Amino acid sequence: MSIIEAITKKREVRTLLFLVLLFIVVGFVNSEFLSIGNIQNSLKSSLLYIVLAVGLTFVLLTGNIDISVGGTLGLSAAVSGLIMKNGGSIIFAIAVAVLIGAVVGLINGFGVTKLKISSFIMTLGMLEITRVVQVIYTDGKWVENLPVAFKKLSQVQVGGVNVMILMILIGVILVHLYLTKSNKGRYFSAIGDNMDGAVLLGVPVKRYVTYSFVISGVCSALAGLVFASQVGFISTNAGLGVEMTVIAAAVLGGVSLSGGVGSVIGASLGAIIMISINSALVYMKIPAFWNAVISGALLIIIVVIDAQLNRRNEKRTEKERMRARVLQKSEPKVPKEEVSIVYGK
Amino acid sequence: MVNKIPKWNLVLVLVLISEIIVFGLINPRFWNISILLNSFNDFVAIAIIGFFVTFVIITGGIDISGGSIIGLTSVVTGILSQLVGLNIWIAVIIAITVGGLCGLINGILIAYGRVQAMVITLGGLLLYSGIAIVLVGVSGASSYEGISGFSEEFSSLAYGTVLGIPNSVILFIGMFLIAYVLLHLTKYGRYVFLTGINQNAADYSGIDTKKIIASTYVLSGLSAGVAGVMLTSYLGSARADFGSEYLMSILTIVVLGGTLITGGKGGVVGTALASIIVGFLQVGLQMGGISTQYIGLATGLLLILSVALLSVSAGSKNSIKKLLMIKSNIKEGEV
Q1: Which residues contact A72 (CB under 8 A, 6 or more apart)?
Q2: Which of B126, B297, B301 sits opposite A248 (nearest CB)?
Q3: At A261, is the secondary structure helix, strand, or coil?
Q4: CA distance A86 to A75
Q5: Residues in contact with A225: Cβ distance below 8 Å, sequence separation at least 6, in sequence order
Q6: For the whole model, what pTM was predicted?
Q7: DSSP class of B29
Q8: What is this model's ipTM?
C-alpha cells in the first residue's frame, strides 16, 4: 500500500496515469485510437512541444517564464530554411538555427539578470521583436521548397520506430538525469525554490538564470528545426500561439510557475496530453472547435485540484509538526527539585 | 503642485508631446485633430481593458485572459442579437455580464483557490476563446466572416459623435474617470493598493483581501466585455478571434504607464497616457509610410526599454539614497 501511495504522490506518475486514462477512455469509444500507428502519430506531432517544454522547464524551475519560445522557433526555422533553400548545407543551417536560439536566450537572460526586467515582460517583448525580425528577414513570404534530404530527417525509421522520436525521448531522459542527479543540474531548482538560500550556498544565480534562458532558446531553435522538417515549409506565422500551449503543457505536467518544482518528464507528458486531446477529438468524432475549451477547462481543473491537494498536505504536515512539538514540551525537562524551588519562592 | 504629479507621468506627457511634434513634421496630416480623435477607435478597446488590468497588477496578480473575453463577448452579442433575435441593447448587456462572469471565475479561482494568477488566466485564455469558437461552430455561423448585419443603431455606437467628439473618445474618457475615481479617490482603491503592497498586513488590518483580489478580476472582465461590444460595433461583425492579439498591447500600456509588474505601485493616469502614446505611435508610423510589420518591433522595444528604464531609475535612486546615508553617517562620526 505504501508503495502505491508513494508512487501516486509523485506528480509525474499522476500525469502518466491521466494520459493512460485518456487513451483508455477514447479507446473504448474508438478502438483505432489505441493502434500503434496512432500512438506513434500522437508522439510524432507532440515532439515539437516536448522539445519546447524541456527548454521551458529549465526557465520555469528557476522561477522565471519564457514567452518568447514561439518567436524564437519561427525566426530560427525561417533563417535556417532560407539557408537550406539557397543551397547551404544542412549542418550549417542547423548550426545557425541553434546560434540564433542561443543569442535570443542570451538577450533574454541579460535583460532579466542585468537589467532586472521581469522575465514575463522581457520575453513578451522579445516574442514580438523576433516575430517582426522573421517577417523582415523573409520579406513576409513563406519559406517553401526545403531540400528533400532535410524533410526526410523526420521520417527515418529503425525497426518500425521513428528515429526522431527515439532521439528526443533519450534526450529527455538524459536531461532529466542531469537535472535530478548532478550537482549543477540541481542548481536550477535550487534557485527557483529559494533564491536567497541558493546565493548563500554559493550558487552563481545570475549565471544559471542566464543559462536557463539560453537552453530554452536553443530548445526553441531545435523545435523550429523539427517543425520545419515535419511540415516541410515555414509560414510567416509559424509558432504563433505555441507559447501558451507549451506553458499549459508544463503546468499540466506538474511544473510550478513559481519555480523549484517540476521535471522535464512531467512537462513532456503534459505536452503529449495537450496534443493527444486533438487526435482524441477526431477519433471520438467531436468537432475540432471543442479543442480549446477542453484543454482550457482541463488545465484549470487539474491545476485547481492540485493546489487544493498540496494545501491539504501542507496543513497535515504542519499539524504533525505542531503535535510533535507539543509532545516534546509536555515532557518535563527541568529536574523536580528545581521546580519546587521555583514554586517555593 | 508639480511635485505631486509622479515623475514618470511627466515623462510620458513629454514623450506624447514630442511624438505628436515628430510625426507631425514627418506628415503634417498627423496634426489634423479629427484624424487623431478618430484614431481612438483603434486602441480604445486596449485602453479600456488596460485601465482595469492596472487594478489587477497593482494587487500583485496578472490577467492575460482579457483578449479572449473580447472575442467571447463579441460572439455573444452577435448570436443573441442576430441569430436569437433579442433586442441589441439587451444582447449588449448580457454580453458585458458574460465578460464579468469570466472575470468572476478567474477571480474566485485565484483568490479563494489560491492558484497562481498566471496559470488561471492562461487556462481562461484557452477556455473563453474556446467557448467563443464553440458558440460560433454550434450556431453554424461562418467562423471566417463572422456574424454581421448589425443595425445602424448599433454601429453608431462606434461611429457616432457627440458635439463633434467621437463616441470612442467619450467612452475612453468615461471609463478612465470611472477607473480613476475607483482607484485613487475611494476606500476601495486604497484597499487595492494595500493588498498589493503587503497582503498579510492588509489581512491583519481587517481588509478582506480575497474579496478585493477577486473584484479586480471581475472589473477587468467587465471592461473586456465593454471592449468586446465596442470592437464589434466598430468592425461591424462578431468574430471569435477578435482581441486575440491584444495580450501584448494591454500589458505594454499598463507597464509603460509605470505600474510595477510586482504590484503595489501604479496608477490609471499612466496607463491612459501610455495607451495614447502607443496608439498614436501606430497611427504615426502608418502615416509615415512605415509598413505595419514594423509596428510590433516598435512596441516590443518600447515595452522592454520602458521597464528597463523604470527599474534602472529605481535602482539608481536607491543607490543614491544609500550613498547619502553613508555620507551622513560619516559626517556624524566625524562630529
Answers
A1: A100, A101, A104, A105, A126, A130, A217, A220, A221, A224
A2: B126
A3: coil
A4: 17
A5: A76, A77, A80, A94, A97
A6: 0.83
A7: G
A8: 0.78
